[in-house]
Write a structure and sequence with these properties.
Blueprint (H helix, E strand, L loop, with lengths): L1 H20 L3 E2 L3 H16 L1 H7 L1 H6 L4 H16 L3 E2 L3 H29 L1
Antiparallel strand pairs: 1-2
Helix pairs in contact: 1-2, 1-6, 2-5, 5-6
């Protein structure tokens, strides 16, 4: 549970940072937190089903299609959350790269911290 909360916070921060460089519209800064929560729920409930359904496509593209799935999750979050808007697939694709890199970096930091603890 603690790990999911951290991932939501990392996603929230990544969305906020992405909004500084990309045309993401948010009614208030609090909407970034809500977007992080909704994105976390969407990734928890819908993304695994899409990953399983697109295994052949992921194998053919050597996993790059996962970025497209992440883009769909960003667009779905934008559609579900009033006050948070990502204007198109291209912007959502760039946002998904930023969020993916942020989550990957967080995962690496946690693994490094766990190694130091042992």
């Amino acid at each position: 549970m603690k790990r999911q909360i951290y991932r939501v916070l990392v996603s929230t921060l990544a969305l906020f940072i992405a909004a500084q460089f990309l045309p993401i519209m948010s009614a208030t800064p609090l909407h970034f937190l809500w977007a992080g929560i909704v994105l976390g729920l969407v990734n928890l409930l819908i993304r695994p089903v899409l990953i399983i359904l697109t295994i052949p496509l992921n194998l053919i593209t050597l996993g790059v299609f996962t970025l497209v799935i992440n883009t769909w999750m960003i667009l779905l979050t934008s559609g579900l959350l009033p006050g948070f808007y990502v204007p198109g697939f291209g912007v959502a694709f760039l946002v998904s790269i930023i969020v993916s890199l942020a989550n990957w970096g967080f995962k690496v930091l946690i693994q490094l911290d766990n190694r130091k603890m042992k």
